Amino acid sequence: xxxxxxxxxxxxxxxxxxxxxxxxxxxxxxxxxxxxxxxxxxxxxxxxxxxxxxxxxxxxxxxxxxxxxxxxxxxxxxxxxxxxxxxxxxxxxxxxxxxxxxxxxxxxxxxxxxxxxxxxxxxxxxxxxxxxxxxxxxxxxxxxxxxxxxxxxxxxxxxxxxxxxxxxxxxxxxxxxxxxxxxxxxxxxxxxxxxxxxxxxxxxxxxxxxxxxxxxxxxxxxxxxxxxxxxxxxxxxxxxxxxxxxxxxxxxxxxxxxxxxxxxxxxxxxxxxxxxxxxxxxxxxxxxxxxxxxxxxxxxxxxxxxxxxxxxxxxxxxxxxxxxxxxxxxxxxxxxxxxxxxxxxxxxxxxxxxxxxxxxxxxxxxxxxxxxxxxxxxxxxxxxxxxxxxxxxxxxxxxxxxxxxxxxxxxxxxxxxxxxxxxxxxxxxxxxxxxxxxxxxxxxxxxxxxxxxxxxxxxxxxxxxxxxxxxxxxxxxxxxxxxxxxxxxxxxxxxxxxxxxxxxxxxxxxxxxxxxxxxxxxxxxxxxxxxxxxxxxxxxxxxxxxxxxxxxxxxxxxxxxxxxxxxxxxxxxxxxxxxxxxxxxxxxxxxxxxxxxxxxxxxxxxxxxxxxxxxxxxxxxxxxxxxxxxxxxxxxxxxxxxxxxxxxxxxxxxxxxxxxxxxxxxxxxxxxxxxxxxxxxxxxxxxxxxxxxxxxxxxxxxxxxx
Length: 706
Fold this sequence. Notes:
This protein is an alpha+beta fold.
């Protein structure tokens, strides 16, 4: 018995000793932690409870020239649910889950109520605390979701989790879409203006310290080191949204009518280089629709064809090699250069033509013959003129991806052939983008000064201009003023008598050049089924304000020439600008609220009045005007002449300075009615000249004596 008691006591002491040793070990460990690594562990603990979060800056807007939004950031939401929240008991979940599923299915397409119900139940069974219900939810949809069963209890009691993101939107959809561009931060892809001005638009993210609380949520800790985000700057473009709309609609219609592959249209302000419209449309073979998928105007270097003849004629004039009145023979419109044959589309009369006719009728044989005879012994001199016009240099515009111009030089023996000179003279064996070609014509319109195309005029922050972009001069003078004046007359002649006569009917006088170029197909040579049809020029012809180019690629419906395919788009753009820009009219039109100014007699006269004067004076009537009802007096410098007056079928005529009788008669003959006050000549009209007109429309006239 005593032995058993001793054994029990021994075991107790051993146990007591073990407990004592363990307690001592704990005390020692506590002491070590307290005095050795305590500070480090405390710091680690605080790091787990505190975290610095990035506060995203709002990306800046891209605006049109009048402040309309071309691209902006809008909030979109990712909706998740803590299906296993302890605040949602089983009874509540089972009683409301079907109603929640039906609500979700009624708001969003793609899933049925049954599918939503299955996902919710599965998520709860698996303990999912972050179940995705829907991505890319709008704010309007979010407001409805907050009222759904269970979720209407809020974040904690209903398990609703809302994650906000910013989504880039284009309020005008495809309008100038390829020029405005897009950004993909994940892949670091930035295109168009979004890419060119990414640093300005992105802003600067802020920083905020937050502490973790229950349920894994984080709340801000007010800290002196907090940095507020700085939102991005806004980029104000030169784009006129109304002209852009006209350009895209006109381009799309012509592409569809001609079953073309792609096309572009650009409108530039002559003096400033501001791009007022730039449309790029390419056929999507899957949908059969035209989209802004590729910036053809900026990126596509193509052989310009006959539009390049302007540069050839400038070179000839600069070296005094030609006069417009010079005559030449081109035979049947065919000429041999070595083993290659140069042909015209059709013979011109008997083959005996003037230099003026050669340009206006766009004779390949005539222009190539003039250049070849002038420079065959010294082709470098011709190329030097092209270089002197800066045609070999990229424009270095702000938008990335500009195609490089290619104007080869005779020193490059590998690519210079015996036939290169004549073929380059008519726009082959060289490459330029549509924008680069337009810049050359814009320089002619600008009296020889070549300016850089501008897409952005200002950077603003909070309505305050932080940076302004001024017009940049690329080349102060591409040619002598006498040369510029001569080619201006030629470009007017193309519209008056040449390959673009269809544009004579426009209410605004246009100058320009057509172009039709075969498209080379790699090593196979030129494909006679594929063409680029173009028209490039400016208006008004006498006092140019705007230049424009239209290029239609691979038309398939039978028409291939620039005058038939591209010129109609040009005219529609010019007519719209004429209707909305009073500064390009010969006279100033005033709104109804303005005081009328003293009118000058209008050059438009009814033919009966004019012929009465002629008969009384014993003067003969010009035969080609005899059957014209309305006559206009045209004036240029110190000479005047009579011509038929042209009126648009869709735009309001210019009545300024007309007598009341003639103005009323003209309006009634066009199906409109006139109301007036005052006496004398028309001093103002409403609607304004160039506005869209309609049958039965009432036109208000204010009259004033001279």
